[in-house]
């Protein structure tokens, strides 16, 4: 999927874009927009000044919380309300990866584009998504400026990280289970754009990562430990990560001793994938690790 191009030249007065599951053509700039399956595209649309008429209104990050009132709810993260979407008469539907199977049905309602980020290619796919949205909504200059600003932020933090040669583990806990994610994962941005070296390698593309133990983390001795609490991300609870990782094995690591354990923003790293604001938050999470006081 990730190998497909996202953009194609416009024809005459129409707007034509390619995306991972096909092509969409618009006779004019869409006005009525529906977002399904996630908050990443909603996040970027917000930065571009585009207001959807319908979106998922649950589990919104604080800075997008007003969409719970100003947009119509069109279902959950995993299940779209097709009847509600139809009644909104959208000019375009932007569907995120959880809606891949629903693409044929969504496409029968209105032109639909897929907003997808593959494991291992966060920034490359994110740029394609931003450019796709910029082209659809006649915001190409704004999208390019956003990309340039973000790449400058990446470069600034990357220089700090590489100057110290920081090695990291990126882990996620779901209850008491702990999984490690490597360079070909949802955390690829840490290694590819932000310059961290893996304290242990993993080439798995399993979206749930590799199960590991606290002993594994202690043995890996990471300079930086990034922790994502999945339960907090999906709103099941306030999360157990802080308590779970407060133990002697974690305290034996350089990450703990040098104040470089970072509890990641759960929404930015899990629900708002490839969003413009979310990507900035991700960079700031990495900056915390690079600038922590000894």
Describe this entry's structure for a reader.
- The chain starts with 14 loop residues before the first strand and ends with a helix.
- The radius of gyration is 20 Å and the shape is globular.
- The protein folds into two domains: 15-116, 3-Layer(aba) Sandwich (Rossmann fold); 164-291, Rossmann fold, CATH 3.40.50.
- It is an alpha/beta fold.
- The protein has 14 helices and 13 strands.
- The strands form four sheets. Strands 8, 9, 10, 11, 12 and 13 form a six-stranded mixed beta sheet that branches. Strands 3-6-7 form a three-stranded parallel beta sheet. Strands 1-2 form a two-stranded antiparallel ribbon.
- Residues 1-12 have low confidence and may be disordered.
- Helix 1 (40-48) packs across helix 5 (122-136).
- It comes from Photobacterium sanctipauli.
- This is Ferric anguibactin-binding protein.
Number of helices: 14
Contiguous low-pLDDT stretches (5 residues minimum) are 1-12
Quickly count the domains.
2
Specify the overall morphology: globular
Average pLDDT: 91
Q: Give the CATH class of the largest domain.
A: Alpha Beta
Give the termini distance in whole angstroms: 43 Å
């Amino acid at each position: 999927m990730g190998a497909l191009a996202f953009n194609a030249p416009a024809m005459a007065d129409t707007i034509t874009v390619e995306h991972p599951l096909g092509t969409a053509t618009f006779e004019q700039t869409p006005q009525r927009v529906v977002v399904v399956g996630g908050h990443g595209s909603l996040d970027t649309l917000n930065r571009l000044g585009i207001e959807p008429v319908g979106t998922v209104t649950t589990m919104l990050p604080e800075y997008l919380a007003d969409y719970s009132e100003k947009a119509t709810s069109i279902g959950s993260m995993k299940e779209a309300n097709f009847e509600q979407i139809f009644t909104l008469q959208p000019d375009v539907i932007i569907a995120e990866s959880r809606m891949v199977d629903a693409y044929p049905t969504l496409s029968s309602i209105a032109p639909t584009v897929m907003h997808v980020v593959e494991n291992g290619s966060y920034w490359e796919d994110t740029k394609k998504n931003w450019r796709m949205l910029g082209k659809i909504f006649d915001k190409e200059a704004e999208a390019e400026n956003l990309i340039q600003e973000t790449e400058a932020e990446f470069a600034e933090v990357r220089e700090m990280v590489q100057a110290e040669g920081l090695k990291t583990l990126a882990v996620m806990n779901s209850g008491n289970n702990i999984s490690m994610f490597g360079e070909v994962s949802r955390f690829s941005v840490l290694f590819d754009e932000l310059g961290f070296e893996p304290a242990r390698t993993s080439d798995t593309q399993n979206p749930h990562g590799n199960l590991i133990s606290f002993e594994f983390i202690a043995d890996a001795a990471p300079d930086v430990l990034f922790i994502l609490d999945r339960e907090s991300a999906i709103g099941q609870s306030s999360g157990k990560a802080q308590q779970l990782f407060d133990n002697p094995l974690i305290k034996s690591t350089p990450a703990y001793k040098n104040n470089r354990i970072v509890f990641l923003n759960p929404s930015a790293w899990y629900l708002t994938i490839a969003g413009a604001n979310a990507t900035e938050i991700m960079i700031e999470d990495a900056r915390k690790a690079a600038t922590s006081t000894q």
